[in-house]
Amino acid sequence: VQLQASGGGLVQAGGSLRLSCAASESIFNFNVMGWYRQPPGKQRDLVALITSTGKTTYADSVKGRFTISRDIAKNTVYLQMNNLKFEDTAVYYCYAVPRVRTYWGQGTQVTVSS
């Protein structure tokens, strides 16, 4: 499975961005897809995930601001990020767990200016 992430960029605090993660094959039966992020000098942490049944989970720091969704027809998972804060600055990585193994996309940089 190959994952192509896109949508990062520079945005002012309070602004919005939408990240996309396109998979090279059907995501219909993927157990989990989601996003991690890694701020400069820090560890990579989970941001949000969506399961094959559509159940979503969010990090406390993004609840109410970020929304994860998927378009099965397009083999794509999205992360809508609203009311961005300076502390959301990070490299964002999408991942997929079709069954057991985890696949990672390349990172996309999100920079929020204060």
Layout of strands and helices, then pairs:
Elements: E1 3-6, E2 9-12, E3 17-23, E4 32-38, E5 45-51, E6 56-58, E7 66-71, E8 76-81, E9 90-97, E10 103-104, E11 108-113
Parallel strand pairs: 2-11
Antiparallel strand pairs: 1-3, 3-8, 4-5, 4-9, 5-6, 7-8, 9-10, 9-11
What does this molecule look like?
- The chain is mostly beta strands and 114 residues long.
- Helix content is 0%, strand content 53%.
- The protein has no helices and 11 strands.
- The chain has strands at residues 3-6, 9-12, 17-23, 32-38, 45-51, 56-58, 66-71, 76-81, 90-97, 103-104, 108-113.
- Strands 2, 4, 5, 6, 9, 10 and 11 form a 7-stranded mixed sheet that branches.
- β5 (45-51) and β6 (56-58) form a beta hairpin.
- The N and C termini lie far apart (37 Å).
Task: Give a concise summary.
The chain is built from no helices and eleven strands. By secondary structure, it is mainly beta. The chain starts with a strand and ends with a strand.
Key features?
single chain, 114 residues, mainly beta, 7-stranded mixed β-sheet, 4-stranded antiparallel β-sheet
What is the overall pLDDT average?
A: 97
| Overall shape | globular
Query: Spans with pLDDT under 50 lasting ≥5 residues?
Result: none
Rg, Cα atoms, Å: 13 Å
Structural class: mainly beta
Give the percentage of residues in beta strands.
Answer: over 45%
Count of individual helical segments: 0
* N-to-C CA distance: 37 Å
Order of helices and strands: EEEEEEEEEEE
Helix content: under 10%
Report the biggest beta sheet as strand number plus sense, adding barrel if it closes.
Answer: 7 strands, mixed
Strand tally: 11
